[in-house]
Amino acid sequence: MARKRGIPGLSFSWRRALGISQAQARLSRQIGIPLSRSGRQRKVGRELGCGVLLATLGAGLAVVRMLS
After folding, report:
1. Which has more confidence, 20 or 6?
2. What does the DSSP 8-state code read for residue 16?
């Protein structure tokens, strides 16, 4: 049997009501590091993605120089 839910389109968040979400967002912006797990993973992925690209290009250039 399906679980009954409240009124569709109407929800309540006690975290938002107490201001916890706003405080977390403010702190995240101040320290520059996301507090959520997925946010931290996105940030690391962005930073490493660029580093991986540069490392790949550098390795490719090194191989080309060795061969010529």
Report:
1. 20
2. H
Q: Cβ(13)–Cβ(21) under 8 Å?
A: yes
Q: Six-digit token pair at 68? A: 């010529």
Condensed to tens digits (0 to 9), the pLDDT of residues 25-61 reads: 999 999 999 999 999 989 888 888 767 777 787 888 8
pLDDT of residue 2: 62
Q: How far apart are CA 42 and CA 49, in angstroms?
A: 10
* Helix/strand/coil for 11: coil
How far is Cα 58 from Cα 40, in angstroms, rounded to an integer? 27
Taking CA atoms, 16 is separated from 10, 20, 24, 36, 62, in Å, by 14, 6, 10, 15, 53
Quick one: tokens of 4? 């009954």
